[in-house]
Design brief:
Layout lengths: L1 H7 L3 H18 L4 H50 L4 H23 L23 E3 L5 E3 H10 L17 E2 L1 H13 L8
Antiparallel strand pairs: 1-2, 1-3
């Protein structure tokens, strides 16, 4: 509740910390309980709001810095052309190249804040959502733990893609994919957005 209250007050950093604590505590108390999923959804929303807040600030700062740098380059060009006669064409070309390079730097700096597609290897084949707790089957396919357990319970003991026999005891945590998804989310906060 504290995490949600902090989000309401727009204290996103502290809200995320409190929700992470709540998720860890609930996972310890009842790892398969419905509260884990509920807290995860709140945490994903909090992380998205934190990213959105930080992204807006970064974009604003980048735009201000870009405008300042452009103005400084134009002023430098003006001073250079007024002091040196005869090399005007070279100065114009040099100035254009510097402005283009500057534009490239700022576009590159803003790339992480531009939503793209999440790589397929980081998404569950059933839900198409990014992994939170991935498990791998003996056939080598990776699924979200809660989703595959639900499938095994409701539909039957077989892999939904390969159709091979599958039991919950055969599922192994896929730590490499879990870490890759965590790293992706760390640098691409927009991917926390849930529809």
């Amino acid at each position: 509740m504290l995490g949600l209250a902090l989000l309401q007050r727009e204290d996103y950093t502290e809200g995320v910390k409190e929700l992470e604590k709540a998720l860890d505590l609930e996972r310890g108390a009842s790892p398969k309980g419905y509260k884990v999923e509920e807290i995860w959804q709140d945490l994903a929303r909090a992380r998205y709001l934190l990213w959105e807040h930080e992204s807006t600030k970064r974009s604003w700062d980048l735009q201000n810095l870009k405008e300042t740098c452009m103005a400084a380059l134009k002023e430098k060009h003006f001073l250079d052309t007024s002091q040196v006669e005869g090399f005007v064409d070279e100065n114009i070309q040099s100035n254009l190249e510097q402005l283009e390079a500057l534009n490239g730097v700022f576009n590159k700096a803003a790339e992480d804040d531009i939503p793209t597609d999440v790589p397929d290897y980081l998404c569950c084949k059933i839900t198409l959502d990014i992994f939170r707790d991935p498990v791998i089957t003996p056939s080598g396919l990776t699924y979200e733990r809660a989703v595959i357990l639900d499938h095994l319970h409701k539909v039957g003991n077989f892999d939904p893609v390969s159709r091979e026999p599958l039991y919950s005891s055969q599922l192994v945590p896929n730590l490499a994919i879990k870490e890759a998804a965590r790293a992706f989310l760390e640098t691409h906060g927009w991917a926390y957005k849930t529809d």
